[in-house]
């Protein structure tokens, strides 16, 4: 395996890590009004993600940094091409960050309602738009000779991209709802169980629709699978997650349910990534596609970055696991906070 | 208004706003770690209360620092795609390293302290605070590596119209990384120390939370004395490096148009770019040459040595630099005054000093921005010194889209600033009226109710 492929996989791991981890707090935020009806319930929901969301978001920052470092042309083309959409995501993330931290600073209903709303919007927008962005990349972008995106903002809102946006949203909601079951008890947990069925069915329906639509819009994404049929094992990660989740919820194995939901997320991203390989951004004109080779940094940079990753990531995993263990178990009110 | 101008405006605006917070975070986190160390060593309840109070204020400012930092990470791609393509081989690595080595550390242990403070031991509390401080300090290192490479690029070759890495360590430790890093981190210590001194002074002036305020004032003042005096050396180190690596910038700092040996150190003047001269200039002859090269006869380049198109905007660079230097003079006076009072045991009761400390509380934030202005405006017209001009670096975006995002950033950031100020003031007031746990200390036997307090 060459360095370019290694970095394709590593950036993929960062994206999957982000989707699984920030996925549960984006999901909790998107389901905020459906799950939490009273002030206490909302406090518990915020408390459940409180110690983690900031660290989870670092996966996105690191993923962005790694993409910039390893595949600068992809970083430049995608982020400038999706300008307004990216700005919406950024504003969403800003709203969320401050809402989580400021909501409980002042014990006053109007103050809380405003931050509650910003927390919901700030979670929902990114949860929807990440999938829209992926949908646009997957079906191929119109690029000019300088690799600049030539479509407009509204062209990003095409049916296929919107379908993938909804699929992504459903996957985030499943992360959120299984996480809530795992971390709460009583009414909140019951309410999460009640929502789970609808979310699961929506996810399955959207996953099937998305797969079929992909075959119509971007049949080339199946080329790698036709060439190496063994790759068809990868989508089974998602299928396994889909099968496992309702069973786990039924027998109150909430940790397993969260794991199953995470499998769905990871499987889906991996499936797409293997279909795209070695492209990062397929262009409408295939000669202009950004690949792991023509969009990459030099071998020296990729090597230096690999050393940084190998030195740093194990340490990160070590203390991240330690902190998750400190907060093991159900959330209690008055556990501290902002 | 074209997209280039708007992208520059937006980057300036968002970086200006963001840069209010990291120096404050680094400074406060470091002093809080020292307080936690004291708590761990002595087990005194006072240190526990102090750590909790300052950490609460720290957390409020930290939130906005994080939120506004996310924007910075992605703006190189959204607004500066040509730049990103040109420098990606070098510039991306420090950003990724910042995530791996700094942000994870900072945010993970921040979460532990916010929500788990009562679940962990005293020792772990200290380590967690230490890691938050370490994370924020390391993050400054990597972002300054990236910025320094823009100022004094090294360890690369140009190949196919892109800068390509040839030597990782030469790029990381390029000529300005170390001087800039030391200068900036020391500025952060000054920022945190002045903030803590100011709020402590506020309490002492009103005779509230006296025990916390006294100990905090003492720790912060000692920090401030060391950091301010060290800045004399570190600032000088950094300026000498600028003189060698970016002479046009130094000339703009000094408002020096003509090259000269025996170059004067400018005190004040009125640079007039139209006439290519600085009117009413007062300076100390030979001092600049001596400061830079240790020889009052050494030659210093003036702005006229550079093509008009290669000169930075002189007035803006000159005045930001001047503002920073003049404020630094005041900081020296203030901390020496405080040090003398501390030695004589009168620092907690001298109302003049306390009032001065209170009103100087946020001044380092403004000085940080002035220093940043001087460094970045002085870098113009280059986005990467000598290699790529800012005018060639922006994304080819429709102007209306950038205008839209600027309006949103303006509105959102102003709103956040208002909320932040409201919350900090509230937190400080609550600490005085007894609504918060901190005030419990006062009630539980601090000096407040004792007769004969000298204030």
Name the descriptors.
heterodimer; A: 338 residues; mainly alpha; two-stranded antiparallel sheet; globular; B: 455 residues; 2 domains; two-stranded antiparallel ribbon
Structural class of chain B: mainly alpha
Number of domains of chain A: 1
Widest beta sheet: strand line-up of chain A: 1-2
Beta percentage of chain B is 5-15%
Number of DSSP E strands of chain B: 8
Descriptive overview:
The complex is a heterodimer of chains A (338) and B (455). Chain A is mainly alpha-helical. Chain A has helices at residues 3-30, 32-35, 39-49, 53-70, 72-81, 83-102, 109-139, 159-183, 186-217, 223-227, 235-250, 254-276, 299-326; strands spanning 279-281, 290-291. Chain A has one domain (3-326). In chain A, strands 1-2 form a two-stranded antiparallel ribbon. Chain A is globular. Chain B contains 15 helices and eight strands. Chain B has helices spanning 3-18, 21-42, 45-79, 81-116, 122-151, 168-172, 177-205, 210-245, 247-254, 287-293, 314-343, 351-359, 363-377, 399-433, 437-443, and strands spanning 156-159, 162-165, 260-261, 265-272, 277-284, 299-300, 382-384, 388-389. In chain B, the strands form four sheets. In chain B, strands 1-2 form a two-stranded antiparallel ribbon. A two-stranded antiparallel sheet of chain B has the order 3-6. A two-stranded antiparallel ribbon of chain B has the order 4-5. Chain B is globular, with a radius of gyration of 23 Å. The interface between A and B is large, with 66 and 68 residues.
